[in-house]
Amino acid sequence: AVFATALAARGHPLIVEMIDYWRRMRPGPGLLPGRQHFDPVEVPKLLPFIGLLDILREPDLRLKVRLAGTKIEETLGPSLVGQYLDELVPNFPATLVAKDYFRVAIDGIPVWYRGRQTSAIGKAFLPVERLFLPLATDGIAPDAIVGLMIFGAQIR
Fold it and tell me: Which of helix, strand or coil describes residue 66?
């Protein structure tokens, strides 16, 4: 996993488009965009690949699926919405994907990854290219993660 704003510019065109949109959503220099800045009408071709997670911090840090695009559900399975990742993914805290999510949730740092899928749900054998971006209602403390995931043959 690497910082999204560095190497992800070499990523899939949908990844690059999502980074550009996230940057344009920012309410000001040094601030993170929030869910209130995200307008699905502006990125219709990205929607099937987008997931949205709520960051819950009490009593412990947990991630809950708020939205999963059709391409994500086709690969990882239906009924993701409303689930906590630590209940959905076996041994979640030890997975690479958990470390990437937590980096975004705790540090507010975008993460991009291209390689083998690192969680044992759905079609775990497929290659994946994924981008996790922090969202913060107040512009500072991440309270959600917007992710874009491209699986298997969809990767260029």
Answer: strand
pTM above 0.85, yes or no: yes
Determine the Cα–Cα distance for residues 51 and 49; give it in Å rounded to an integer: 7
CA 57 to CA 87: how far, in whole Å? 16
Q: Which residues of the chain have pLDDT under 50?
A: 1-2
The strand pairing partners of 84, in sequence order, are 64
DSSP strands (E only) in the chain: 2-3, 50-56, 62-68, 111-116, 127-135, 144-151
Q: Are 134 and 105 a contacting pair, CB within 8 Å? A: yes
**Can you give the pLDDT at residue 154?**
59
Helices (H), the chain: 4-7, 13-25, 70-76, 85-88, 96-107
CA within 13 Å, CB half, 145: 30
